[in-house]
Amino acid sequence: MDDGGQKDSVFARYLSSQPVHIEPASRDFGIVIEKIGVNAPIVADVSVADEKSYNEALKTGVAHASSSGYPSREPGNVYLFAHSSLNFWELGKYAQVFNLLRKLETGDMIHIFYQGQDFVYRAVNKEIYKGFNTYSLTRPVIEPLLTLQTCDPPGTTINRLVVTAKLVEVR
């Protein structure tokens, strides 16, 4: 496999084929990021424009933007968003699910479980956007991507932290 001009190595293949050690909260639609302890169900088809709707969805897991794709080997953008807050008494059990998203680095693995399959993504980029910027949701894509978005710094709505990952395998 060629990754941006760099040759694949035995070590890289070993890293990508490591099984998750956490039993996912949902194999139908769930996310596991072992590095930062994320294990949550994903709520499908949540409107990013309806604040009441997405706040309700975020009480039960990570939200999947209704205008984005689903995990697939085909080109598309799976856009997931969640809280990074300390306000669990108002925002619910998953208020802190993306608090440590800023700790992800290039090369870190993200597992999206969808319809019984494990879609394994490798982080390739991390950016911070001012305010509510929709570029990462609407950008054109030519390969299977995963976009994770949360507020930054945690507990505020000043910026949006966006992590982009590329699909490396499906199990």
Major beta-sheet overview = 8 strands, mixed, barrel
Superfamily at the CATH H level?
A: Sortase
User: Structural class of the helices, strands and pairings?
Assistant: mainly beta
What is the N-to-C succession of helices and strands? EEHEEHEEHEEHEE
Euclidean distance between termini CA atoms: 17 Å
CATH architecture: Beta Barrel
Indicate the CATH class: Mainly Beta
* Beta-strand content estimate: 35-45%
Q: What is the residue-mean pLDDT, rounded to a whole number?
A: 82
The domain tally reads 1
CATH-defined topology? Sortase, Chain: A
Number of helices: 4
Helix content: 10-25%
Q: Label the overall shape.
A: globular
The Rg value, from CA coordinates, equals 15 Å
The count of DSSP E runs of length 2 or more, i.e. the number of strands, is 10
Strand order, main sheet: write it out.
3-4-5-6-9-10-8-7
Q: Any low-confidence stretches, pLDDT <50, length ≥5?
A: 1-16
